[in-house]
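Milestone 3.1: sequence recovery, worked example.
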């Protein structure tokens, strides 16, 4: 399944033609904020290929629970926006893949190596493209800072994660399968238990920067959090997201304290595009 997943995604999401190009001449966010530079050292000993291998297995588990929606136009659109955002990061070489899960729940997920998913339920609640960019950028930030890899290390044990590096040379197929199964299970469980509050808030901060760097209005994510804050917490569609994330109100407060008005000069960024309006029809 891990070998098939990249092919399935590439076919369903279509060719990764670059998204709409926005002028970046007025943006110099390298001086405004640093992103992805304080990665947990314990998670940095996996190579990119090992991280991708780990993430593809976890992504396969997620797709087993909620398959990709069959709306090819929606898949291509989300992939184009996501690819453009990923190009603005310090890991553009990852084989980034973006997709929409066929679920009415409101949520978004990332796995190591660059697999990003949003649910159809979340996408249909968004109001413009900058909000989509904010959501995708938040998930991209988790990958950049290897939050899931660090959490898996704590859950499955350092020896299990270190074993990934030896799998290619392993002669015993049962041992390899056992190690992979342990890691995939630990990784998949994170989508039920959630990452730490600090990881989520760090991804919010970095996501705002990534979106602005890509030419979007920097507060698209804030708009999404405002929408989520208005939803009844007892609504089953948001139950898992509210369980695995800090409250929308606390996330907005944290962003306000971290950012202040330092991003105000980037408020000329793109808020919406005709292609988003077309998608919502």
């Amino acid at each position: 399944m891990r070998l098939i997943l990249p092919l399935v995604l590439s076919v369903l999401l279509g060719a990764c033609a670059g998204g709409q190009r926005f002028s970046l001449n007025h943006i110099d966010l390298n001086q405004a904020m640093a992103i992805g530079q304080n990665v947990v050292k314990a998670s940095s000993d996996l190579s990119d290929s090992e991280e991708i291998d780990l993430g593809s297995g976890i992504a396969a588990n997620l797709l087993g629970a909620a398959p990709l929606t069959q709306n090819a136009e929606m898949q291509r659109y989300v992939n184009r926006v996501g690819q453009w955002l990923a190009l603005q990061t310090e890991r553009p070489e990852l084989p980034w893949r973006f997709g929409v899960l066929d679920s009415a729940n409101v949520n978004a997920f990332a796995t190591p190596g660059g697999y990003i998913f949003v649910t159809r339920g979340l996408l249909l609640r968004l109001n413009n493209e900058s909000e989509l960019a904010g959501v995708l950028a938040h998930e991209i930030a988790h990958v950049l800072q290897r939050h899931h890899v660090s959490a898996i290390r704590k859950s499955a044990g350092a020896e299990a994660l270190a074993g990934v590096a030896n799998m290619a040379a392993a002669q015993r197929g049962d041992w390899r399968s056992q190690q992979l199964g342990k890691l995939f299970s630990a990784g998949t469980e994170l989508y039920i238990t959630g990452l730490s509050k600090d990881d989520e808030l760090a991804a919010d901060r970095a996501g705002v920067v990534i979106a602005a760097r890509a030419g979007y209005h920097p507060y698209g994510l804030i708009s999404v959090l405002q929408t989520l804050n208005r939803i009844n917490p007892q609504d089953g569609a948001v139950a898992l997201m509210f369980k695995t994330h800090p409250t929308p109100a606390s996330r907005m407060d944290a962003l306000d304290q971290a950012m202040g008005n330092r991003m105000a000069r980037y408020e000329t960024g793109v808020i919406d595009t005709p292609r988003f309006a077309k998608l919502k029809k």
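The first strand starts at residue 97 and ends at 101. Confidence is low (pLDDT under 50) at residues 1-44, 167-172.
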